[in-house]
Specification:
Layout: H1 2-28, H2 37-49, H3 53-63, H4 71-83, H5 87-98, H6 105-122, H7 125-137, H8 142-155, H9 159-169, E1 171-172, E2 175-176, H10 177-194, H11 198-211, H12 216-228, H13 232-245, H14 250-264, H15 267-278, H16 285-297, H17 300-311, H18 317-328, H19 333-350, E3 356-358, E4 364-365, E5 381-383
Antiparallel strand pairs: 1-2, 3-4, 3-5
Helix pairs in contact: 1-2, 1-3, 2-3, 4-5, 4-6, 5-6, 6-7, 7-8, 8-9, 9-10, 10-11, 10-12, 11-12, 12-13, 13-14, 15-16, 16-17, 17-18, 18-19
Length: 390
């Protein structure tokens, strides 16, 4: 409400100031038009008093003559309208500015930047892109324009143009551009894979690796392609590299690794791998997988004892829930009833709980996003750790 009140005060004052500035300029040139201040100004005030705000704004903007003294006022008004969500008015003001031949190059470039942001807010990305590219050609406002243009290309999933702009930026949202460009190549590789163009996908993954040799996502996609082609050994090698480059992605690869070892008949190798990562990883996923293997090779009691020993090191509601499941098979009477009560409680605790969280903005969800839907940063969404998480 404070901003709205200030707007109504600013518009009449700015209009009068602009009119007087224009009057002074005309007086210096010897011309003096008929006075419209009284009638127009009173008309605008009447509209305000009668809460006809749209008409009042039109009157005051019409009075606010564009000249070197009022350009900043026009820009400020347009910016204020855009922030308030009144994009149509912001566009009208900034278009009116650009149409004036009296603007200096600097003032016109300022107006182009504002109008481009108006178009972005309105979802008119093609128009905004054209204005931003014009500013790049003029070599002005690059620090403002490049991030805006990159945002457009990311929203449109135009990854090739996003790569081009990111190369110019060097730093993207506080992150090194090379790691972000690797993510763009991964997006292109995923698209190629979806079209069954696996050769093109692998070539794009090589490009991603050139920009970021430690890009775990590139290895994860490559592992999926190898598994898709029946190259299970190559897939396992790539999956292990994923865990080495980003151990927080371990929950994403364990099921696929287990499937590869099942196809190869190398279950003991998987067991050794799980014991190794359990000593390095604080989450519960490898413990639960190893418990399933122990249950299959032995019985429920042995698996429950294994989980019980691990829960002391890494308290976990998911681990407790699995422990209760395994214990129910060997329980009866009152003990079984108590376990069922605990099972119901753990299920309620886990119900609708997010699995992933962005380290930067705190966005939470149940799906792994490579680009955070909240802050738009890349590779910042990771599994949630702790009692109710991983």
């Amino acid at each position: 409400m404070v901003i709205v009140d200030l707007l109504w005060l600013l518009l009449p004052v700015a209009a009068v100031s602009g009119w007087f500035a224009g009057r002074r300029n005309q007086a210096r040139t010897g011309s003096c038009p008929d006075s419209i201040l009284g009638s127009e100004y009173i008309k605008g005030l009447n509209y305000l008093l009668n809460e006809q705000q749209d008409k009042a704004i039109d009157v005051f903007i019409r009075m606010l003559e564009v000249n070197s003294d009022t350009v900043e006022t026009h820009l400020a008004l347009g910016n204020l309208f855009r922030k308030r969500g009144e994009v149509d008015r912001a566009i009208r003001i900034h278009q009116n500015l650009i149409a004036r031949d009296s603007l200096s190059d600097e003032q016109r470039n300022d107006a182009l930047l504002e109008l481009g942001q108006d178009y972005m807010k309105a979802g008119l990305f093609d128009r905004a892109e054209g204005l931003f590219n014009e500013l790049i050609e003029n070599n002005v406002h690059l620090s403002s324009v490049l991030p805006l243009l990159l945002d457009i290309y990311q929203q449109e999933k135009d990854w090739l143009n996003a790569i081009r702009i990111a190369r110019q930026m060097g730093i993207v949202g506080g992150q090194q551009a090379r790691s972000i460009i690797a993510q763009f190549y991964c997006e292109l590789a995923e698209n190629a894979r979806a079209r069954d163009n696996l050769e093109e996908a692998c070539r794009l993954l090589e490009e991603a690796g050139d920009y970021d040799p430690y890009c775990a996502r590139a290895r994860l996609i490559r592992a999926g392609i190898a598994r898709q082609q029946g190259e299970y050994q190559a897939a396992l090698a790539a999956y292990e590299q994923v865990g080495e480059r980003d151990i927080e992605l371990l929950p994403e690869i364990l099921d696929d690794m287990q499937a590869c070892h099942a196809a190869l008949g190398t279950q003991p190798v998987m067991i050794d791998y799980l014991y190794k990562v359990i000593s390095q990883y604080t989450g519960i996923s490898p413990v639960l997988m190893l418990a399933d293997i122990i249950r299959h090779e032995n019985d429920d009691r042995a698996a429950a004892e294994f989980i019980s020993g691990e829960l002391g090191k890494r308290p976990s509601v998911r681990g407790l829930s699995r422990f209760i499941d395994l214990s129910l098979a060997n329980s009866e009477g009152g003990a079984r009833e108590n376990l069922l009560i605990l099972k119901n409680m753990t299920d309620k605790l886990l119900e609708n709980k997010p699995v992933y969280k962005c380290h930067d903005c705190g966005f939470c969800g149940k799906t792994l996003h490579w680009q955070c839907p909240g802050c738009k940063h890349w590779n910042t969404v990771k599994p949630i750790y702790g009692v109710e998480g991983e």
